[in-house]
Amino acid sequence: MIDIHCHILPGLDDGAGNMSDAIEMADLAASSGIKSIIATPHSNIPGGYRNYWSLSLEDDIKILQSEINNRNNPLTIYCGQEVFLASGFMELLHKGNFITLNRSRYILVEFDMLEQANVAYRKLEQLISEGYVPIVAHPERYGFVWEQKESVYRMKDLGALLQVNKGSLKGRFGKNEMDVAIEIVETFQADFIASDAHSQYSRTPYLADVHEFISETYSSDYGDLLLKVNPQKVLNNETIYSF
Ligand SMILES: [Fe+2]
Protein backbone atom coordinates (compact mmCIF):
# COMPACT_ATOMS: atom_id res chain seq x y z
CA MET A 1 0.00 0.00 0.00
CA ILE A 2 0.94 3.64 -0.43
CA ASP A 3 -0.14 6.36 2.00
CA ILE A 4 -0.53 9.67 0.15
CA HIS A 5 -1.31 11.81 3.23
CA CYS A 6 0.84 11.52 6.35
CA HIS A 7 2.34 14.00 8.81
CA ILE A 8 5.48 11.96 9.39
CA LEU A 9 8.22 14.60 9.03
CA PRO A 10 9.43 15.34 12.56
CA GLY A 11 8.98 18.69 14.24
CA LEU A 12 7.32 20.53 11.34
CA ASP A 13 3.65 20.57 12.29
CA ASP A 14 1.24 18.78 14.63
CA GLY A 15 2.46 15.41 13.33
CA ALA A 16 5.55 13.51 14.49
CA GLY A 17 7.09 15.48 17.35
CA ASN A 18 10.63 14.24 16.85
CA MET A 19 12.71 11.69 14.94
CA SER A 20 11.92 8.89 17.35
CA ASP A 21 8.16 9.43 16.82
CA ALA A 22 8.69 9.50 13.05
CA ILE A 23 10.65 6.25 13.17
CA GLU A 24 7.91 4.58 15.22
CA MET A 25 5.31 5.80 12.71
CA ALA A 26 7.43 4.41 9.88
CA ASP A 27 7.74 1.04 11.64
CA LEU A 28 4.00 0.89 12.26
CA ALA A 29 3.26 1.79 8.64
CA ALA A 30 5.62 -0.89 7.33
CA SER A 31 4.08 -3.47 9.69
CA SER A 32 0.67 -2.79 8.13
CA GLY A 33 1.92 -3.42 4.60
CA ILE A 34 2.69 0.14 3.53
CA LYS A 35 5.60 0.35 1.10
CA SER A 36 5.66 4.10 0.53
CA ILE A 37 4.52 7.26 2.28
CA ILE A 38 4.15 10.71 0.78
CA ALA A 39 5.16 13.11 3.56
CA THR A 40 2.58 15.91 3.59
CA PRO A 41 3.30 18.54 6.25
CA HIS A 42 0.66 21.23 6.69
CA SER A 43 1.52 24.21 4.52
CA ASN A 44 0.15 27.75 4.18
CA ILE A 45 -2.20 27.63 7.17
CA PRO A 46 -3.09 31.27 7.98
CA GLY A 47 -1.57 32.15 11.32
CA GLY A 48 -0.26 28.59 11.60
CA TYR A 49 2.15 26.20 9.92
CA ARG A 50 3.67 27.65 6.75
CA ASN A 51 6.21 25.00 5.71
CA TYR A 52 6.75 26.48 2.28
CA TRP A 53 8.78 24.23 0.03
CA SER A 54 12.53 24.65 0.52
CA LEU A 55 15.79 22.75 0.36
CA SER A 56 15.51 22.38 4.11
CA LEU A 57 12.28 20.40 3.72
CA GLU A 58 13.96 18.26 1.09
CA ASP A 59 16.79 17.61 3.57
CA ASP A 60 14.26 16.65 6.25
CA ILE A 61 12.97 13.91 3.94
CA LYS A 62 16.48 12.67 3.16
CA ILE A 63 17.40 12.54 6.86
CA LEU A 64 14.23 10.62 7.75
CA GLN A 65 14.79 8.23 4.83
CA SER A 66 18.31 7.54 5.97
CA GLU A 67 17.16 6.82 9.54
CA ILE A 68 14.51 4.45 8.15
CA ASN A 69 17.09 2.70 5.95
CA ASN A 70 19.41 2.28 8.93
CA ARG A 71 16.71 0.20 10.62
CA ASN A 72 16.33 -2.03 7.57
CA ASN A 73 12.80 -0.77 7.14
CA PRO A 74 12.07 -0.94 3.36
CA LEU A 75 9.66 2.03 3.48
CA THR A 76 10.24 4.84 0.98
CA ILE A 77 9.34 8.45 1.77
CA TYR A 78 8.33 10.82 -1.04
CA CYS A 79 7.88 14.59 -0.98
CA GLY A 80 4.58 16.43 -0.75
CA GLN A 81 2.60 18.96 1.23
CA GLU A 82 -0.96 19.39 2.42
CA VAL A 83 -1.59 22.83 0.97
CA PHE A 84 -4.18 24.98 2.72
CA LEU A 85 -5.99 26.96 0.01
CA ALA A 86 -6.00 30.35 1.72
CA SER A 87 -6.56 33.40 -0.45
CA GLY A 88 -3.48 34.19 -2.53
CA PHE A 89 -2.44 30.56 -2.84
CA MET A 90 -2.02 30.70 -6.63
CA GLU A 91 0.58 33.45 -6.34
CA LEU A 92 2.49 31.38 -3.79
CA LEU A 93 2.23 28.36 -6.07
CA HIS A 94 3.68 30.36 -8.98
CA LYS A 95 6.54 31.46 -6.74
CA GLY A 96 7.45 27.84 -5.98
CA ASN A 97 6.26 27.75 -2.38
CA PHE A 98 4.34 24.52 -2.85
CA ILE A 99 5.32 21.10 -4.09
CA THR A 100 2.96 18.58 -5.62
CA LEU A 101 2.87 14.94 -4.55
CA ASN A 102 6.21 13.48 -5.67
CA ARG A 103 6.40 16.41 -8.12
CA SER A 104 3.47 15.04 -10.12
CA ARG A 105 0.41 16.87 -11.48
CA TYR A 106 -1.39 15.92 -8.24
CA ILE A 107 -1.53 18.43 -5.37
CA LEU A 108 -3.04 17.59 -1.98
CA VAL A 109 -5.22 20.48 -0.79
CA GLU A 110 -7.33 21.34 2.22
CA PHE A 111 -9.85 24.07 2.94
CA ASP A 112 -10.95 25.97 5.99
CA MET A 113 -13.55 23.76 7.70
CA LEU A 114 -16.06 26.62 7.21
CA GLU A 115 -15.21 27.26 3.54
CA GLN A 116 -18.15 28.22 1.32
CA ALA A 117 -18.90 25.71 -1.44
CA ASN A 118 -18.66 28.24 -4.27
CA VAL A 119 -15.32 29.53 -3.02
CA ALA A 120 -14.00 25.98 -2.78
CA TYR A 121 -15.09 25.25 -6.36
CA ARG A 122 -13.43 28.42 -7.62
CA LYS A 123 -10.15 27.50 -5.93
CA LEU A 124 -10.22 24.00 -7.41
CA GLU A 125 -10.98 25.47 -10.85
CA GLN A 126 -7.98 27.79 -10.58
CA LEU A 127 -5.67 24.83 -10.00
CA ILE A 128 -7.29 22.70 -12.71
CA SER A 129 -7.09 25.53 -15.26
CA GLU A 130 -3.31 25.50 -14.82
CA GLY A 131 -2.97 21.75 -15.35
CA TYR A 132 -2.91 20.57 -11.74
CA VAL A 133 -5.15 17.82 -10.42
CA PRO A 134 -6.22 18.77 -6.90
CA ILE A 135 -6.78 15.92 -4.46
CA VAL A 136 -9.17 17.19 -1.80
CA ALA A 137 -8.01 15.95 1.59
CA HIS A 138 -10.81 14.59 3.78
CA PRO A 139 -13.84 16.08 1.95
CA GLU A 140 -16.00 14.47 4.65
CA ARG A 141 -14.75 17.01 7.19
CA TYR A 142 -16.07 20.18 5.53
CA GLY A 143 -19.36 21.78 6.51
CA PHE A 144 -20.28 22.60 2.91
CA VAL A 145 -20.06 18.91 2.04
CA TRP A 146 -22.34 17.93 4.95
CA GLU A 147 -24.88 20.55 3.92
CA GLN A 148 -24.72 20.07 0.16
CA LYS A 149 -24.18 16.42 -0.66
CA GLU A 150 -24.11 17.30 -4.36
CA SER A 151 -20.84 19.14 -3.72
CA VAL A 152 -19.09 15.76 -3.82
CA TYR A 153 -20.20 15.28 -7.43
CA ARG A 154 -19.54 18.92 -8.29
CA MET A 155 -15.91 18.68 -7.15
CA LYS A 156 -15.49 15.45 -9.12
CA ASP A 157 -17.11 17.00 -12.22
CA LEU A 158 -14.66 19.89 -12.04
CA GLY A 159 -11.81 17.36 -12.20
CA ALA A 160 -10.78 17.12 -8.54
CA LEU A 161 -10.15 13.80 -6.81
CA LEU A 162 -11.25 12.89 -3.29
CA GLN A 163 -9.16 11.43 -0.46
CA VAL A 164 -11.13 10.04 2.47
CA ASN A 165 -9.44 9.68 5.88
CA LYS A 166 -9.35 6.17 7.29
CA GLY A 167 -10.26 7.56 10.73
CA SER A 168 -13.45 9.16 9.38
CA LEU A 169 -14.78 5.76 8.34
CA LYS A 170 -14.42 4.62 11.95
CA GLY A 171 -16.12 7.71 13.39
CA ARG A 172 -12.84 9.18 14.64
CA PHE A 173 -13.94 12.75 13.79
CA GLY A 174 -17.67 12.53 14.54
CA LYS A 175 -20.96 11.31 13.08
CA ASN A 176 -21.28 13.80 10.22
CA GLU A 177 -17.76 12.95 9.06
CA MET A 178 -18.40 9.22 9.32
CA ASP A 179 -21.74 9.33 7.48
CA VAL A 180 -20.34 11.42 4.64
CA ALA A 181 -17.12 9.36 4.43
CA ILE A 182 -19.15 6.16 4.12
CA GLU A 183 -21.44 7.73 1.53
CA ILE A 184 -18.47 8.90 -0.55
CA VAL A 185 -16.97 5.40 -0.44
CA GLU A 186 -20.30 3.61 -1.03
CA THR A 187 -21.13 5.73 -4.06
CA PHE A 188 -17.64 5.08 -5.49
CA GLN A 189 -16.78 8.78 -5.46
CA ALA A 190 -13.66 8.12 -3.35
CA ASP A 191 -10.35 8.00 -5.20
CA PHE A 192 -8.04 7.41 -2.24
CA ILE A 193 -8.10 6.43 1.39
CA ALA A 194 -5.12 7.70 3.36
CA SER A 195 -4.10 7.79 6.99
CA ASP A 196 -3.71 11.55 7.54
CA ALA A 197 -1.58 10.17 10.38
CA HIS A 198 -0.26 12.50 13.05
CA SER A 199 1.33 10.06 15.49
CA GLN A 200 2.12 6.45 16.32
CA TYR A 201 -0.57 6.38 19.03
CA SER A 202 -3.72 7.98 17.67
CA ARG A 203 -4.41 8.91 14.05
CA THR A 204 -1.75 6.36 13.11
CA PRO A 205 -0.36 5.36 9.71
CA TYR A 206 -1.67 1.79 10.11
CA LEU A 207 -3.79 1.03 7.02
CA ALA A 208 -4.15 -2.77 6.97
CA ASP A 209 -7.48 -2.69 8.80
CA VAL A 210 -9.13 -0.17 6.49
CA HIS A 211 -7.89 -2.03 3.40
CA GLU A 212 -9.41 -5.21 4.82
CA PHE A 213 -12.65 -3.39 5.65
CA ILE A 214 -13.07 -1.98 2.13
CA SER A 215 -12.07 -5.28 0.52
CA GLU A 216 -14.55 -7.30 2.59
CA THR A 217 -17.40 -4.77 2.49
CA TYR A 218 -17.16 -3.85 -1.20
CA SER A 219 -14.51 -5.74 -3.17
CA SER A 220 -10.80 -6.41 -3.08
CA ASP A 221 -10.50 -4.46 -6.34
CA TYR A 222 -11.98 -1.37 -4.68
CA GLY A 223 -9.69 -1.76 -1.65
CA ASP A 224 -6.70 -2.02 -3.96
CA LEU A 225 -7.86 0.90 -6.11
CA LEU A 226 -8.07 3.29 -3.14
CA LEU A 227 -4.93 2.21 -1.30
CA LYS A 228 -2.62 0.83 -3.98
CA VAL A 229 -3.54 1.47 -7.64
CA ASN A 230 -4.49 5.16 -7.56
CA PRO A 231 -1.71 6.10 -5.10
CA GLN A 232 0.83 4.37 -7.37
CA LYS A 233 -0.48 6.41 -10.30
CA VAL A 234 0.12 9.56 -8.28
CA LEU A 235 3.72 8.53 -7.63
CA ASN A 236 4.15 7.77 -11.35
CA ASN A 237 2.28 10.91 -12.45
CA GLU A 238 -0.11 8.77 -14.48
CA THR A 239 -3.68 9.68 -15.37
CA ILE A 240 -6.34 8.55 -12.90
CA TYR A 241 -9.72 7.77 -14.44
CA SER A 242 -12.37 8.44 -11.84
CA PHE A 243 -16.11 7.70 -11.59
FE1 LIG B 1 -3.50 16.21 7.11
Describe this structure in words.
By secondary structure, the chain is α/β, with parallel strands linked by helices. It has one domain (2-236): Alpha-Beta Barrel (TIM Barrel), CATH 3.20.20. Helix content is 43%, strand content 15%. It has 10 helices and 9 strands. It has a 6-stranded parallel sheet. Strands 1-2-4 form a 3-stranded parallel sheet, with helices on both faces. Strand 6, helix 4 and strand 7 form a beta-alpha-beta unit. The radius of gyration is 17 Å and the shape is globular. It binds fe (ii) ion. Fe (ii) ion binds next to loops.
Key traits:
243 residues; alpha/beta; 9 strands; 10 helices; binds fe (ii) ion; 15% strand
Describe the SSE topology.
Elements (H helix, E strand, L loop, with lengths): L1 E5 L12 H13 L4 E4 L2 E2 L11 H16 L5 E4 L2 E3 L4 H6 L11 E5 L6 H13 L3 E5 L5 H5 L2 H9 L2 E5 H4 L5 H12 L5 E3 L13 H10 L2 H17 L7
Parallel strand pairs: 1-2, 2-4, 3-5, 5-6, 6-7, 7-8, 8-9
Bound molecules: fe (ii) ion.
